[in-house]
Amino acid sequence: MRLIQRPTPSPLHYLYAALGSLATVTAIVLLFTGDVERAAAAFTSVDIHYLARVFLVVAVISLSGVLSYRSGLWNIGQEGQAVVGALAAVASRNALEAVALAALFSTLWILAPAVLRATAEVNEAVTTFLLSLVAIYTARYFIDGPLRDPAKKGFVVTAEAPYLDILAAAAMYLLLLVGVVALYKTRTGLTLRLLASGEEVVRYAGKSPRVYIATALLLSGAVAGVGGAVEIMTREAGRYMTLQQVSTGFGLFGVSAAWLGGLHPLGAAAASLYIAWLYQVATNLKVMGLPALVANALVGSAMAWGLAGYVMYKYRVVWR
Amino acid sequence: MATTRRDWLKTVASFAVGAALGAGGTYAALQSIKTAVEKTAAQTSPTAASPTEAPKTAAGLPVMKIHFIYVGPIGDYGWTHAHEQGRRFLQKTLCPDPKKWCIVETSYTESVPEDQAYTYIKRALSNGAHMVFTTSYGFMDGTKQAASESPDRFFAHCSGFFKTPDEWARLRNFAEYFIDLYEAYYLNGLVAGRMTKTNKLGYVAAFPRLPEIIRHMNAFLIGAREVNPNVSMEVVGIGEWYSPDKARKAATSLIEAGADVLAFTEDSPTVLQVAEEQQKAGRRVWSFSHYSDMSQYGPDAHLTGQVVNWGPLYLEMAIRAYLSWISGDLSIWSEWPPERPRDYWWSMKNAYAGYDYRKNPADIITPLNPAVPDDVKTYVEKRRREVIEGVWDPFTGPVKDMRGKVRVPDRARLSKDDLYNMDWYVEGYVKEPT
Predict the structure, then answer these.
(1) 8 Å CB contact of A232 and B115
(2) Interface of B with A in 50-109 (CB under 8 A)
(3) Do A237 and B34 touch (CB under 8 A)?
(4) CB-closest option in A157, A273, A287 to B120
(5) Does the first or last residue of chain A, that is N or C, have fewer Cβ atoms within 10 Å of its Cβ?
(6) Residue with the larger pLDDT of the pair A52 and B97
(7) Which residues of A touch B27 (CB under 8 A)?
(8) Minimal-distance CA residue of chain A relative to B140
(9) If contacts are CB pairs under 8 Å, which of residues 195-254 in chain B contact chain A?
């Protein structure tokens, strides 16, 4: 089996990937529910606030993925950057301050990988991923220390993050989306995309690849941090962190959405909606009493199909 | 340039409109399918009752639906596993035979993220649950919010607290409950103090700064030092409730440092397995059960241990809620026994007879290893009886902390609040746990 690069890639393959994912999901759900009626109930029960919340969080983080992967850079530490963003939100007095601080601190969080990648060619996939593990322990330090809420009796819990209305979160996401789309229409955006074709290309274009590598990663980190802040602030109850619940997993969903959406901001939005719906289906299945692992596998399969879509888009498979 | 800009503005605008229309359309379509499904479901099953109007048993008793929300998977052999055993006990006791009589129908959702408790509770309620148990500290606010929004349902949350007396008075359909293990740890400590040859104990702690775990560790150490004042204890924190890898590393390092009795608060039998491997290699290293009976994982190394049996507590709460539900009188559920309303603390004191949880479902401690000398057995049994009768408590003064400050004055005891906010360490730690 060989992969041959397609001379004229067609975005249609992302659609095939989405359909493949949908077929997988349907098969899994039918297999585990055992009857059509329960499967239909699992597919159609929707809690609109929940769906919107998951969608917005995944969509914001997917933009972080787009910003990084379109420049050929592998920031896979969205989970950690989101944790840092959520911590910043917990430390803030109001939602506006929370978003600003989240963007600031998650930018600082990715600063080291960005600088290392730009100046010393240190693999950013490794550093960003490892830093997400560091983020969890850092968060635990803050939960147990400076951000601990003394009013929670002996329990080790942070103070509550400010509340962010879901509509305000949606407006903010739209701004971000328009911002990212607009960015790619500018000369800077074009250069950022050129980076994916190689640093040489950027150099021939008369720009410094270092600056653009750092820019792409820093933007990506900032957006992921905002995603984390949105996640904790749009919860209906319990807008705090505990020692055991630091990481929420939405960072990984954001990465899947970016790939499934063909690394296009609008595609990523559509993919985020799809993943949010899958998450809702997974929730429904769990409430029906099916094993939680099956539910998680649903969302996981979407990630696999997202990468498959990317491969199918770029390459032709030859069975020889 | 101007045209291109206009062009992409158009594109963005049309995408935005398209997305909005698409989302609206999808939602409308989903809702209509949902209505259709609900309609067919209602037609095909005419017995499907509304949440407040329950299906009846043959004897005419209504069936109460109880839903459990777990933080972990039911097979983790620890926290959630124990709650699931409790649910099964409840189901078996109040629904022994659906054809003859059955007054509860239980269900559960596993691995619920703490931040999403409210969503899952709402879903359970719309599926018809009359009572919801949530079993993790992080579920507290979501459960309370659901309780205030659905005053006709019952809610019980494990391991939380009421912030103010006002909140307690407002949420009449909401209860807090937990289990006291520190008395069992104290008895384990008595055994550990007599079994150690090196006078060094080890403790593998999930989070050594949580009051719950400080309470366990302190009680264990107090027990050990009561029978052997030369004992000291070293603690290794692992930062996870369930992590066999880290527990193994921690246990191994403690053994290398000379500890020969290992206690732990972690959800897997790993520490016991490590001790068993040492026993097989000819070294006398001991450990315990925690949460579930783990003796099968270390038949030689297993001294004793605490079994959390939530079943009898769930049974009691469900029966009270049931009576309250069919009578419409909330006080039946919430204000009895009068001295501790809506605050259920299950403890060793509920196990009156039989030092074996297999004969007495209310017991929370496993039988002692035959290797434990008879005089130790007698002493442990004596202390156990005193704890059950209420004439003895591990934290009876004088108790000093590791800096020498008297924390419990002579002959005094700690209040529930002091116990549940414990943030100091008793004498005998090698160094302060971090």
Answers:
(1) yes
(2) 71, 73, 107-109
(3) no
(4) A287
(5) C
(6) A52
(7) 46, 48
(8) A238
(9) 207, 209-212, 239, 241
Which residues on B lie below 8 Å from A45 (Cβ)? Answer: 34, 123
Contact status, residue B88 vs residue A13, Cβ threshold 8 Å: no
CA angle B257, B206, B425 (to 5 degrees): 70
Whole-angstrom distance, CA of residue B384 vs CA of residue B269: 25
Of B31, B118, B420, the CB nearest to A237: B118
Q: Which residues of chain B are within 8 Å of residue A292 when distances are taken between CB atoms?
A: 73, 109-111
Task: Give the span between the Cα atoms of A142 and A191, in whole angstroms.
Answer: 39
Per-residue b/e over A182-218, b at no fewer than 16 CB within 10 Å?
Answer: ebbbeeebebbbbbeeebeebeeeebebbebbbbbbb
Q: What is the strand order of the sheet B261-265 is part of?
A: B232-237, B200-205, B261-265, B286-291, B302-307
Say which range, A97-106, B304-313, B356-365, has the weakest mean pLDDT.
Answer: B356-365
Single-letter residue type at B36: A
From the CB of residue A14, how many other CB atoms can be counted at a distance below 10 Å?
A: 25
Across residues B332-341, what is the average pLDDT? Answer: 64
Q: Does the reported pTM lie above 0.90?
A: no
Find all residues with CB under 8 Å of A266, minimum gap 6, and list them.
A177, A181, B15, B19
Helices (H), A184-249: 187-194, 199-204, 209-233
Interface A-B: count of C-beta contacts within 8 A = 133
Strand pairing class (B131-134; B154-158): parallel
Return d(Cα A170, Cα A266) in angstroms, integer. 15
Write down the pLDDT at residue A181. Answer: 95
Cβ pair B187, B218 in contact under 8 A: no
- In chain A, the residue whose alpha carbon lies closest to the alpha carbon of B146 is A237
Return the bridge partners of A3, or none: A317
* Best residue of A54, A163, A245, A272 to probe chain B, by most B CBs closer than 10 Å: A245
Helices (H), B114-181: 117-126, 140-149, 165-170
ipTM > 0.85, yes or no: no
Burial class for A296, CB neighbours closer than 10 Å (0-12, 13-18, 19+): middle
The residue length of chain A stands at 320
Lowest mean pLDDT among A246-250, A292-296, B43-47: B43-47
Residue A3 vs residue A146, higher pLDDT? A146
- The single-letter code of the amino acid at B208 is P
Judge whether B148 is closer than 8 Å to chain A, CB to CB. Answer: no
pLDDT score of B13: 61
Q: How confident is the model at residue B45 (pLDDT cuts 50, 70, 90)?
A: very low
